[in-house]
Amino acid sequence: MGDRLRLAVGIMGNASSLLLYAAPILTFTRVIRKRSTEEFSCIPYIVALSNCLLYTWYGLPVVSYKWENFPVITINGLGIILELSFIFIYLWFAPTRGKIKAGTTTTMVMVIFTVTAIISAFVFHDHHHRKVFVGTIGLVASVAMYAAPLVVVKQVIMTKSVEFMPFYLSFFSFLASVLWLAYGLLSHDLLLASPNLVGLPLGILQLGLYCKYRKRGIIEEEPSKWDLEHNNLQEKPKHIQLSMNEDINGKI
């Protein structure tokens, strides 16, 4: 019963995490359409790649015992594919300076991951010490990944508007943290549970802010609410511009 419950929680955690990892698809569809990265930053996707690499390695039988953490492998494996796709698109359309910065940072992440994998495989000779080593480094990567939304949280507090903090992203972030925290506890694995002790309070904070400011901040362009980079650029929605033009023409 315990193993079945843990597996069920892991599957639900996979679903909620997949929605989070796939959210930037709209952003990069826009990049491809405009053939420009504009002011977008690639750093959040590189940090997410680091997190996915480390936890995929953590879940493999080299570090974990046999396939005890198979759900961790599946979602982070998908995360690697998605994040690499986003980074590749960014490198393709970014200006030279952006390519150098993103390329250098990605290379550093790959080097750190490679060194971590080599040390865990050849220096430590039992699963416990390998899990502690890789899990500790993964915790640092997770904290860095969860820290990224703090910029948006600050913006919401300053503007008293949730226009730049889509509800569904906040909700799925909260849900993923709850599910993976439960999965870690059911697995008696604090190294899997502990990163979500950071993500869970942040998710609660985001939902609380949304409930507080949702009536004050009206999202002007519904189709783009999942496009975080578009929101961060604070572009004026096209239908507002059209309304202004019509109003001006009417007065003339």
SSE layout:
Layout: H1 2-22, H2 25-34, H3 43-59, H4 70-93, H5 96-122, H6 127-147, H7 150-159, H8 167-186, H9 190-193, H10 196-213, H11 228-232, H12 238-251
Helix pairs in contact: 1-4, 1-8, 2-4, 3-4, 3-5, 3-6, 4-5, 5-6, 7-10, 8-10
Would you kindly provide a written description of the structure presented here, covering whatever features stand out?
The chain is mainly alpha-helical. It has one domain (about 1-235). About 75% of the residues lie in helices and about 0% in strands. The protein has 12 helices and no strands. The chain has helices at about 1-20, 25-35, 45-60, 70-95, 95-120, 125-145, 150-160, 165-185, 190-195, 195-215, 230, 240-250. The longest helix is centred in the middle third of the chain and has 27 residues, at about 95-120. The N and C termini lie far apart (about 75 Å). Residues about 215-225, about 235-245 and about 250 have low confidence and may be disordered. It is a multi-pass membrane protein. It is found in: Cell membrane; Endomembrane system. One of its GO terms (molecular function) is sugar transmembrane transporter activity.
